[in-house]
Amino acid sequence: MWFFNKMCTSKARLDGKTVVITGASSGIGKETARDLYARGARVILACRNIEKTNEAIDDIKNNPPSWITKDEYENNVGELAIYLLDLCSLKSVRDCAKSLLTNEAAIHILINNAGVAAYPYKITEDGIEATLQVNYLGHFLLTLLLLPKMQSSSPSCRIVNLASFLYTLANINFDDINMKRSYSPFLRYTQTKLANILFTKELARRLKEANIHGINVYSLHPGVIATEITRYSDSTVSCIAPFFFNTCAHLFGKNVIQGTQTTIYCSIDEGIANQTGLYYSNCGVSNTYRKANDRQYADKLWNVSCRLLDLEPEENFTTFLETVSRQML
Question: Who's near 325: CB < 8 A, 6+ residues apart?
């Protein structure tokens, strides 16, 4: 409930740091961009709707977060930039990554924020169910493609994956990864959020085993928030469901600024700079349960994800990243 919501209290500045945020044209992504821009970062909004993202940038530039004065905001901020990214297209993911690697000197923080919920059943041009690709697989690929740049930008680099407490309800059917036999928008959403937690843990493990230091990985539950993520629900579920969700979110959940705090916390807080592979809620570490703690389950998801991307999951992680990079050529 609102009176239990914690705020990120870190005063950290991000001058000279470059941050990439997916889905930053609205909601949590935009508010995260606003906060990190105010801290001096070069913030890249990686989005599919350029017109809407330009409007977001105008809003960010003209409206500072509450913790900074207008004068400070006008004279002590970072930079804002837009890159085209449509997670429904793996080609767009690769093109975006190639542009980032070519044009940016460094990438210090990657925030995999974009997502959809209650999305109608759709197979993308890549042959993958859309919610799975947007919420998880597209970010999986983007992260792997940007890792070499982040490795050269380290130490103190972070990858932040947005999940949800609803992961506790999920069980991924690897034999029907596209849910062709029985599609449920709600269950698919929970599966993608579980996937983001498993990806966080497995990536942290593989980085450690490959002796790659200076890149830490975090997953988080932002809270129950009424944002545009439910914009498709009218066409996929009863019209009562989105009304009920949004009413509960307004009464018992968080507003967008409150819902941004754990993302900001995982991105900048000095106290967790040496933590990796953990799950956070309300600006603190939270325990994970059931499938999220299954090491073999995480490994299986990694291998299935590689197969969907036509990649061979090699034991040598450095060699694997080189293979992933060649996909952009």
Answer: 145, 148
Sign of torsion over alpha carbons 309, 302, 105, 52: positive
Beta-bridged to residue 19, according to DSSP, are 43, 109
Supply the DSSP symbol for 123: B
pLDDT at 158: 98
- The predicted pLDDT at position 228 comes to 52
The answer to whether 189 is a known catalytic residue is yes
Are 277 and 297 in contact by the 8 Å Cβ rule? The answer is no
Which of 83, 119, 167, 189 is labelled catalytic? 189
pLDDT in tens, 225-252: 865 545 444 444 444 444 444 544 444 5
pLDDT of 78-89, one tens digit each?
Answer: 999 999 999 999
| Cis peptide preceding 222, ω within 30 of 0 | no
What is the rounded end-to-end Cα distance, in angstroms, of the chain?
49
**What is the per-residue pLDDT across 105-117, written as a single tens digit (0 to 9) for each?**
999 999 999 999 9
